[in-house]
Amino acid sequence: MSFVVAAPEFLAQAASDIAGIGSTLSQAAAAAAAPTTAVAAAGADEISAAIAALFNGHAQTYQALNAQAAAFHQQFVQTMTGTGGAYAAAEAVNAAQSLPQDVLGIINAPTMALFNRPLIGDGANGGPGMRGGDGGILYGNGGAGGNGGSNQAGGAGGNAGLIGNGGAGGNGGVNTSPGVGQNGGAGGSGGWLFGNGGSGGAGTGAFSKAGPGGFGGAGGSAGLWGSGGQGGSGGAGGTGAAYVAGAGGAGGNGGWLYGPGGAGGTGGVAGAASAFGGIGGAGGNGGLIGDGGAGGSGGAGSTGTNGGAGGHGGNGGLLYGNGGSGGNGVAAQFAGGTNGGDGGNAGLFGNAGGGGSGGNGDNLAAGRGGNGGVAIFGDGGNGGAGGNMIGAINSNQAIAGGNGGNGGVSRLWGNGGSGGNGGAGETSNTGGIGGRGGDGANAGLLFGNGGAGGFGGTGGNANFGTGVSAGGGGNGGIGGVSGLFYGNGGTGGGGGAGGNFTGGTAGDGGDGGAGGNARLIGNGGAGGAGGPTGAFTNPGKAGVGAGGGLAGILFGQPGAHG
Questions:
Q1: pTM
Q2: What is the C-alpha separation between 520 and 171, in angstroms, rounded?
Q3: For 7-40+51-89, which CATH class?
């Protein structure tokens, strides 16, 4: 658009001059009114009277037109006067708007000269692959890191000052030549007093066959009060057999006084025929008060390639906070599943995080469930479920399902975590046994119920026509012991069912897990039932039920036999 330049003082002067012209014309018209509108007839004849009337009519018409012109003139003068005032007001507003910027420039001048950093203001965003600028020392957010250019890592986010949020890390750039993937930039730190950490940037995949994927950037940590930033996701791995996908970035820690930790980033996806998917990032820890961040899930594997393991959950705050849940392992096609991450520990008060589930296996071992985290005044975390063996193969290998993770204990007051269930065994000529259920954890030393044991996984079926025998069911986990003064023992996990085999010997059922004992007051946990044998032509053996836990010494009932 074109620009308009106006001088308000010139407009006001022009309006004054035009008003003067109008006043002069009005005075002249008034002076001419009397002699021109009252012309007397020269004689008593009709011709003289007609001439006088003609001149008087013209004079009256002139006076009427002059009155209209004077009114228009007055409106024009008012318009010019108002326009000049409007321009003058706009100039005053512009001056008022520039005043804060001028004042801010004066305030920031000393710190810019000494530290090359403003006292108040946001940091500038970084250029391609460059770090974001730091926020003002007193107040301001960190600038975002620049996304990487070709074959360039992402820039880190800028840090905040006293108050403000950290800048996000930039994503890794695209590779245009063989080599490793580019890492994502780390998130900037939150303000020393208040503010959240910035999220990490995502890593990028390797180009062609050469190189591992880039790592996700770590989330920035908070200062005194704020949330940790989330970790960035890892980049995909190259297609060569020796290359892995990038790991997810770790979540940032919460504020020292208060704040939850950030979640870990997801691992990168494995390339074709590469080693395995990326590991999930660990969750960040809470501060004095705050929950731990969840661990990131592992990256998926490609055909014949293992996925990545789940990241561990972050720990809760020292005084109060729940532990973060562990990330899940991932399933694989014609490869092994990966382990779930362990749950994070709770603080002094709070519940621990549960373990992540193990990934399903296909032709190689399934993943184990992650263990539950530990609590002090609170409940322990539950163990994650073991992965199942999926698919069916025509071979004599017998691969077991993944074991369930163990429950986490409570140290002083609280319930023990339950064990995770075992995964199903592989279907093959000799079916794989089911995974063992995880053990329930003991309750707090003073009060609490013991955790229940996990159920055993189902045994794998035998292939019809080529099978030898079906797989046995997995054993159940043991129930946890109660607290000293009060609490019930945990129930034992039931044994898994044996695998099916029509035309041969079916799999044996798994044994049940023992029930947990009570201590002073409370009931013992029931024992787990034995698993049934599978469908059969020749029967297998049913699993053996386990004994129940002991009753409390002062009061309680013993647990039933499984």
A1: 0.76
A2: 58
A3: mainly alpha
